[in-house]
Fold:
Amino acid sequence: MPGNVHPVADEREGLTAYLAQQRAVLRIAAYGLTEEQARAVPTRSALSVGGLIKHVSAVERNWVDIVLQRAPAAHDDLEQRQADYADRFRMGPGETLDGLLADYEDAARETDEAIAPLDLARPVPVPHGVPWFPRDVDAWSVRWVLLHLIQETARHAGHADIIREHLDGATAFELMAAAEGWPATDWLKPWQPPAAGAGEEGGQDAGSADRTDSPPAGSGAKAAEGWP
Structure:
């Protein structure tokens, strides 16, 4: 996907195209990462790139459940709700980056299929008894839910960009250029993995555009997305 959303013909296409763009940007933050890097928590927050991808998958499924009025798992215990929420930000012992990326793709497809036949103005009732939802609003709309998903995904894509830069210095457009095979230019050189023995710090140096290294073996994001 290019750096900008293509021209859109109408509101629905605009909403779905911008959501797809933000999903892609978040996935690209994982490009070339090892499993260890995907789990890493390099900042003072508890966030990791893999954990963020896991979280947004759960977010999309939760909102589809709300739109379609499917009852979520009952949790009367607020502490358990909070624990479940925190767990959705962490890669579990048996989870892999490949698996989380594939699950995110499935979640995105489920959202798109659920939303496609619905009128954007269709009311989406606000669930009762959820402390973080407003009490003075009776319903949102499908349009509002799509806008909220764009907002939520973009927010976490920004988190992922910062975490990735802490890991190896790679920035969003360098990664996008590498993932999509853009040619090197004077203003942008695609990201390349560190040279053997250089370690994981420091990111891309001035001569990195001349390297022909492939991402490290086991780099799940590349395989899961089918990037060249």
